[in-house]
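Lab notes, practical 5.
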Amino acid sequence: MATTFSQPAEHIRLAELWRDPYPTYRYLREHDPVAWVPEAGRYLVTRFEDIMHVERHPETYLSSENPSLMTRSIGETLLRQDGAAHQRLRRAAEAPLRPRMVKEHWLPAFRRNAEDVLGAVVGHGECDLFREVAGPLAARNLADLLGLRGVGDADMQEWSQAIIDAGGNYGEDPEIWARCANAVADLDTAMDEVLPALRRDPDHSVISAMLHAVDPLTEDEIRTNVRVFLGGGLNEPRDSMAAAAYALLTHDDQREDVEAEPALWKRVFEEAVRWVSPIGMYPRRVAERTELGGRVLEPGDKLGVVIASGNRDERVFDRPDAFDIHRAETSHVGFGGGPHFCLGTWVSRAAVGQIGLPLLFRTLSGLRLTETEVPFGGWVFRGPLRLTAAWDV
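Output from the prediction step:
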């Protein structure tokens, strides 16, 4: 293993990153771009250029890590596989998530779900948009995509959060492990009903695709990969929708621009993903001796690839801490890259950017925040914790 060193990075606390990681990331990008952080047990990679280098060299920076927080909590998934093993799992699941299928099959379902969720709150005049709109909508869309028939929004959100928390449990909190184990057990019970039904009667869902692929997955493989889809597949669209709504509700000029030119909704979504990075960090393992960001790394060294920092790198983005849908630099690493580029990218862009956000602002006329300080939390995964708002009834 590479030798640790005496730098401010050694004193970084995960609780501080959870509250607000950006000042720390800014310091690391400038002074220590591949920094050993003992509490995380890995080197944090914080510059955009180095992150892209990692993504372009999957043979050197492996996804497999044993044991990892993910494998400990939900088993072996495609996110912790490399090469042919990863490609086999990915190919089995990807057909329902391709752009054409999203456009032709899922967009109408996303619209119905958004109308139903917003219809349930529109008469109230106020609510927590995070808890009562963004969360339930992401849950309902994901249940349809996966093929989890009869599973309610509340269960989807509870299970997803338990899995997400375990995937970022670098502090080894035993309560988090216990909640994840309970969520996995409950999800497996739901899968006991879904798997036989979809084996008999295929549909457009991801579970059905995995069952009926050219190289079908085993039931155990399907179960573990549904667990990982349930984590990121709910968290990212929920948090990107809430973050984008918050951004527009605190930037009146950009809100006016978007409402005058609906084609800008795409930019709202992409800028929100860059600005907040709902999936803020993912792990990698070094396969061979190499150098990254001036740091010599040895086989077995663990990395945390901090895309939330890369997306605010001042070397790439002008005024990186500002939300700006008109910025010239539109490329970001919010969906990762390389062979592990997020499978749900096109789904999220459609469900949130094309449907969820525009319908939210059209349906809730005069939408406005009712609190001056909106709390955010997280660093491995990050987003608003609450978004209370009111509108005209």
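Observations recorded by the TA: The first helix runs from residue 14 to 19. Residues 8-366 form a domain with the Cytochrome p450 fold (CATH 1.10.630.10).
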